[in-house]
């Protein structure tokens, strides 16, 4: 395993960096990265100049998930405080995962909940992802160690996959396979779930070419919970564990076994103490990694941009400048509510805004 010493970092956040989203083409330019933090801010970075070009401040809560609009002509950015969100390919629907185990689908044309899933996870739903190439497919993962496939046109579950192994390992006895994140390949063929038992489960649902579900467990790449995933290519996956270890997995399409070991492993050293998020992207025919997490102290953040695939990771510097600050107050909010036996509790606030605006939009509520 190769140790990777960071060379430079993107500086600006005053707290742990929780989430990232990359956009190749957006309303504010090409190759931009949004980051959300426990410091109640969001930064937007130009990855060509390696500078922060927008600072979204005055948020009342940490930013736990961020998404650029799927269409470049839409000047919209979606932030959440709570669990993760996702947008479908047409930018018509937004999915939220909530602490009551439900998945909510918001119709962005009416700003109202389109569908709430009829069944739910037994405990917290950590993440929800739309499946590319499948218009009505949404997948979710939860702290009940289950992955659900939903038909959100009806709000009903299609399949439930148990992440517990038939013969639990010693790691699973002490670290159950809670589902922390999901990633889906761009062709929609593979769904990957990162698990608390230090493994990753790959699922390939039935298709026209294959009438059976294919499952592959990715083993021996990590020794602590896996909490972030990113597909580099449809048949190549990058995973990150809380302890800063990276693993690259490949060729699972051709696997004839139920388990696979990693193709490569790396340990990220330096100023990142814990991984929270990984994002991979291609620029100028090179593959880059954005790694976000906790710095050397629990109160500090870390955000690196890396270029790897020659057995090392070279990191680029991006000094933070305030840029044009956006005031998030007065902008449109979506609210997903959960019903508890004795009260209604607001658990998700989605800030929906136009990054091109330089002043407060007083016409919205």
Overview of this protein structure:
The structure is a single chain. The protein has 365 residues and is mainly beta. The protein has one helix at 170-174, and strands at 2-4, 17-26, 29-37, 42-46, 51-57, 65-68, 77-81, 85-87, 93-97, 103-107, 112-116, 125-130, 137-142, 146-151, 156-162, 179-184, 191-195, 200-204, 214-218, 226-233, 236-241, 245-250, 259-260, 264-268, 274-283, 286-294, 301-308, 313-316, 324-327, 332-339, 344-353. The strands form seven sheets. It has a five-stranded mixed sheet with strand order 1-24-22-21-20, with no helix packed on it. The chain is globular. Residues 309-355 and 358-365 have low confidence and may be disordered.
Question: Could you list some keywords that capture this structure?
Answer:
mainly beta; transcription; disordered C terminus; WD40_rpt; DNA-directed RNA polymerase activity; single chain; 5-stranded mixed β-sheet; globular
Secondary structure layout:
Elements: E1 2-4, E2 17-26, E3 29-37, E4 42-46, E5 51-57, E6 65-68, E7 77-81, E8 85-87, E9 93-97, E10 103-107, E11 112-116, E12 125-130, E13 137-142, E14 146-151, E15 156-162, H1 170-174, E16 179-184, E17 191-195, E18 200-204, E19 214-218, E20 226-233, E21 236-241, E22 245-250, E23 259-260, E24 264-268, E25 274-283, E26 286-294, E27 301-308, E28 313-316, E29 324-327, E30 332-339, E31 344-353
Parallel strand pairs: 1-24, 5-29, 19-23
Antiparallel strand pairs: 2-3, 3-4, 4-5, 6-7, 7-31, 8-9, 9-10, 10-11, 12-13, 13-14, 14-15, 16-17, 17-18, 18-19, 20-21, 21-22, 22-24, 25-26, 26-27, 27-28, 30-31
């Amino acid at each position: 395993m190769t140790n990777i010493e960071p060379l430079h970092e993107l500086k600006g956040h005053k707290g742990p960096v929780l989430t990232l989203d990359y956009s190749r083409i957006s309303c504010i330019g090409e190759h931009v990265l949004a980051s959300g933090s426990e410091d109640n801010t969001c930064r937007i970075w130009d990855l060509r100049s390696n500078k922060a070009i927008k600072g979204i401040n005055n948020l009342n809560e940490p930013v736990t998930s961020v998404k650029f609009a799927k269409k470049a002509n839409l000047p919209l950015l979606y932030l959440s405080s709570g669990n993760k969100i996702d947008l479908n390919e047409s930018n018509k629907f937004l999915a939220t995962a909530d602490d009551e185990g439900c998945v909510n689908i918001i119709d962005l044309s009416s700003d109202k909940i389109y569908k709430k899933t009829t069944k739910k996870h037994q405990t917290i739903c950590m993440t929800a992802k739309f499946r590319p190439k499948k218009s009505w497919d949404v997948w979710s993962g939860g702290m009940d160690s289950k992955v659900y496939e939903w038909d959100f046109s009806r709000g009903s579950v299609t399949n439930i996959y148990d992440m517990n192994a038939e013969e639990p390992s010693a790691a699973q006895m002490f670290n159950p396979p809670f589902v922390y994140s999901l990633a889906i390949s761009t062709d929609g063929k593979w769904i990957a779930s990162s698990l608390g038992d230090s493994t990753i489960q790959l699922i390939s649902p039935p298709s026209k070419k294959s009438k059976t579900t294919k499952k592959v467990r990715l083993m021996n790449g990590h020794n602590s919970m896996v909490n972030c995933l990113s597909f580099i290519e449809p048949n190549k996956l990058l995973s990150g564990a809380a302890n800063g270890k990276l693993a690259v997995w490949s060729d699972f399409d051709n696997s004839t076994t139920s388990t696979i070991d990693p193709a490569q492993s790396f340990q990220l050293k330096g100023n990142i103490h814990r991984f929270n998020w990984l994002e991979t992207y291609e620029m100028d025919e090179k593959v880059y990694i954005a790694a976000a997490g906790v710095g050397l102290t629990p109160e500090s953040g870390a955000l690196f941009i890396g270029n790897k695939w020659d057995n090392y990771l070279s990191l680029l510097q991006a000094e933070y400048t305030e840029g044009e600050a956006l005031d998030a107050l007065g902008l449109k909010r979506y609210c997903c509510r959960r019903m508890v036996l004795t009260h209604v509790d607001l658990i998700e606030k989605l800030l929906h805004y136009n990054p091109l605006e330089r002043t407060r939009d007083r016409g919205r509520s």
